[in-house]
Amino acid sequence: MEYQITITGTIGCWWNSASFDYVQYVLNQNKGKEVHVGFSSYGGYVKDGLELYQAFKNHGNVHAHAFGMNASISTIAMLGCKTIDIVKGSFFLIHNTSTMIDTYSQKNKDDLDAYIKNLTKQKDDLATFDDVLAQMYADKTGKTKEECAAQMNKGNWMSAQEAVDFGLVDSIYEDDKDEKATVEITNLFMNNYKNNKEAGIPPLPKPQQPIAAVADSEGNPTPTFLQKTLQGIKNLLHKSNVEDNQQQMSKTKENAALLAALAVDSLPTDDKGQYILTAEQTEKLNEMLGKPKDEHKDDSPAPQAPKDQPKDEASELKAELQKAKNDLAAKDEQIKNLQKNPSPEDKTNDNPADEHPQVTAFDIAKAIKDI
């Protein structure tokens, strides 16, 4: 976003490009027009911040856009703008006012009394500043002065969303250029925190790592890629699944052969998935299979075997049946002997159903890919 004014650095310092005189000049050049001001400042002097606040308020059509890190009197200056938004990833801080105390001298008791009196006056002045600024925040946010004073006393960095929730900022906007600048400013702050700490500005909050979802709303474990992969391999190695796949492949080949024999691309099916053939198609298949046509089908009953069988033929059948029983008994005995004394070289599995199917590495890779 393009700004007519950009507030950076320490507000009120002589090296700051956005001094009050400069800001007032730009505002005068844009009377009756919208003015967009970019803010990225840790703060500065209360006097200069209040002057900017009033200049923006007097113009009446100034829009503040916070990016990077804004704190202290910078946030007060924004309150004079018509609207305030903040770029995603930026930070916002309001806190109590402070003053520089720097003395190194030899003092007697009278000097100390005078010094303490001066410090007490400065303390009272700071309390007055805090009270006035808390009311300004309250007017913006709709919260009570006490609530705003409590946040100032807390003095922690707020995220963009927290600043919006508190009411200090109206909305969050996305801008690639400003987001990049925000990252650079944040890194600069972290690298130069020692100087910022001396100014009373707290460190940035530690980023919270998102907790990985390990259970659903009912407390059941969520499926992971590893679980799905292992289950897919188990399904692939399971014999019943392999047999089902083989049966499906066999059925597919049979269907293809049927369509090729009838010289058609597809066939209608009934509710059970069975093919529906026309009379001509049925006749064609019968001819290919060597079956007689329906009109030549002999519906006469099959000839009955004669009731009276020769006696010697019955004896032969009984003998063959007994021989078969004896052979089965001998086989059973051999199997029992082998089970009791198995040969060390014999690796035969008596239960073919327990054998693992032949699965190639390509099959496993394909199963994982499907997952």
How would you characterize the overall build of this protein?
The chain has 371 residues and is α/β, with parallel strands linked by helices. It contains 13 helices and 8 strands. It has a 5-stranded parallel beta sheet with strand order 1-2-3-5-8. Strands 4-6-7 form a 3-stranded mixed beta sheet. Helix 2 (46-59) links the parallel strand 2 and strand 3. Helix 4 (109-141) crosses helix 5 (145-154). The longest helix has 33 residues, at 109-141. The radius of gyration is 46 Å and the shape is elongated. Residues 288-358 are annotated as: Disordered. Belongs to the peptidase S14 family. Residues 288-300, 308-335, 343-357 have a biased composition (Basic and acidic residues). One of its GO terms (cellular component) is endopeptidase Clp complex.
* Record field, number of beta strands: 8
What is the succession of H and E elements?
EHEHEEHEEHHEHEHHHHHHH
- Sheet-strand content, in percent, reads 5-15%
Structural class: alpha/beta
End-to-end Cα distance: 45 Å
CATH fold field value of the domain at 5-100 and 108-199: 2-enoyl-CoA Hydratase, Chain A, domain 1
Q: Which CATH C-level class of the domain at 5-100 and 108-199 is it? A: Alpha Beta
CATH superfamily of the domain at 5-100 and 108-199: 2-enoyl-CoA Hydratase, Chain A, domain 1
Note poorly predicted spans: 207-215, 293-298, 343-356
The amount of helix comes to: 40-55%
For the biggest sheet, the summary is: 5 strands, parallel
Write the CATH architecture name of the domain at 5-100 and 108-199.
Answer: Alpha-Beta Complex
The number of distinct helices, counting runs of at least 4 residues, comes to 13
Cα Rg = 46 Å
Mean pLDDT: 77
Which strand order do you get reading across the main beta sheet?
1-2-3-5-8
Rough outline? elongated
